[in-house]
Amino acid sequence: MTSRHAHDDTRWELGPVAGPSEPRDHAGLSTPVPESVNLPPRLDTAVTALTEMRGSAVSFTVQPDPESVTEARHFAVSRLAEWDLLELADDVGLVVSELVTNALRHSGGVNSSGRPGVDVHREGVYGDPADPLGSAPAAIRLRLGHEAPWLLCAIMDASRSAPRRREPDYIAETGRGLHLVESFSVRWGWRGLDHGKVVWALFRSP
Fold this sequence. Notes:
- There is one protein chain.
- By secondary structure, the protein is of the alpha+beta class.
- 25% of the residues lie in helices and 21% in strands.
- The protein has helices at 41-51, 68-82, 89-106, 177-184; strands at residues 30-32, 58-62, 140-147, 150-157, 164-166, 187-193, 196-204.
- Strands 2-3-4-7-6 form a five-stranded antiparallel beta sheet, sandwiched between helices. Strands 1-5 form a two-stranded antiparallel sheet.
């Protein structure tokens, strides 16, 4: 796979793409990813605007069902078509699939048997920027924002637990999600919210 880090652009003043160093695990073990701090001002503002649905951001509610991964990917690709960004469809589609899968797996949306978790998507007030998840215990939202040539993708869920990076086990069928997110985006990270967290990934059109 080819890393997209080569697309860094001084317009966004991205700074180093690598986070704080962390010890390497044995295959199958995992470590929490440090929360994104001290982001460049423009990127920090963009992430905040996306979580608060300001500007031209679009949003998709992920239902507590494994089929929602496909639905979220289709939503993202359709928006890329509207924005004339289909050259990003493969990369964004893969990253959306991985992030939605992680959110469903770890925030209570889908349990180990693949069935919806308990007390998922309780109704809430989603229009309040101070509570973008409506206090729903496992609500998951996909959000996309576009400011040429950049695309910002975010997954919001009600869990405040940090994403965990696993050392890749190339025989195992799972465990490579965040490595794929890192490889197919310019930069990615996460931020705690009052009612959960947001995991975001930044893309640049060629």
